[in-house]
């Protein structure tokens, strides 16, 4: 099944105004929708959608405090969409919306959807700095390229893994022992679009989501700007071991963490998954500690 990855995440929130400012400052473009909803788009059209907690079109929440209400995955074509419908309709209700998208729940209770992807083509980032071009421009706009991945807290990571492997054709790329798997669907070679973390049942929900930037340099620059606006850094900047992606996480008003990332590994079907225990050494290759600007011989500003 040629699933590409998450096209959009639907959040129901109390503080719509706060989320509006936060997601714009993060770098996403707001697009008003009907019914009080707003899309916040990356360059390729993948997006976060926000709405009120009492929006009548929402799937039921996993818990009274759940904010992520649905993950909608993009697929390559209508044939893939029909294949997914035929597979999942064998043992659960699959609803088809007026726009042709499919909506159901996975085996751990998360609402999931599928649509022929609405992603737009985006020029690939340049591999080198062109002649007479400045490589680092402090005021250059940085817009997230695409919705990268989603991480979930689940009470049974093995059950979650079986559903996505056996029913939707995902592959495990790497694994933290007794924690959970990193997984990619067949429509992408990116290291992961989902990751499951084993937790007690009361913690079930979204842990974080991430958008790709063009480079590690952009992660550092965008994260520094974001922190300078007063948003609280949670983890980073640094570079992961599994996936190799640069990262910088921030707390968000969406009820989860949000991440900038870049330069994730690509794998074909010949890749053999690695397994390591969860530890600081295995969670990151290195981790920087941001500090005020400094110059040799000078004092921090």
Describe, in plain words, how this protein is organized in 3D.
The protein has 301 residues and is α+β, with helices and mostly antiparallel strands. The protein has one domain (3-118, 144-287): Roll (2,3-Dihydroxybiphenyl 1,2-Dioxygenase, domain 1), CATH 3.10.180. The protein is built from five helices and 18 strands. The chain has helices at residues 16-26, 78-88, 157-167, 216-228, 280-283, and strands at 3-13, 29-32, 38-41, 47-52, 68-75, 95-96, 102-105, 111-116, 146-154, 171-177, 180-184, 194-198, 205-212, 233-239, 246-251, 257-262, 274-277, 286-287. The protein has a ten-stranded mixed beta sheet. Strand 15 and strand 16 form a beta hairpin. The longest helix has 13 residues, at 216-228. The radius of gyration is 19 Å and the shape is globular. The N and C termini lie far apart (54 Å). The model has no long low-confidence stretch (mean pLDDT 94).
| CATH class placement | Alpha Beta
Order of helices and strands: EHEEEEHEEEEHEEEEHEEEEHE
CATH topology: 2,3-Dihydroxybiphenyl 1,2-Dioxygenase, domain 1
Helical residues, percent: 10-25%
CATH architecture: Roll
Contiguous helical run count: 5
Apparent shape? globular
Overall pLDDT level: 94
In total, the number of strands is 18
The largest sheet, given as strand count, sense and whether it forms a barrel, is: 10 strands, mixed
* Strand order in the sheet with the most strands: 17-10-11-12-9-13-16-15-14-18
**CATH homologous superfamily assignment:** 2,3-Dihydroxybiphenyl 1,2-Dioxygenase, domain 1
CA-to-CA gap between the ends?
Answer: 54 Å
Look at the helices and sheets and give the structural class: alpha+beta
Number of domains: 1
Report the β-strand fraction as a percent range. 25-35%
Low-confidence stretches: none
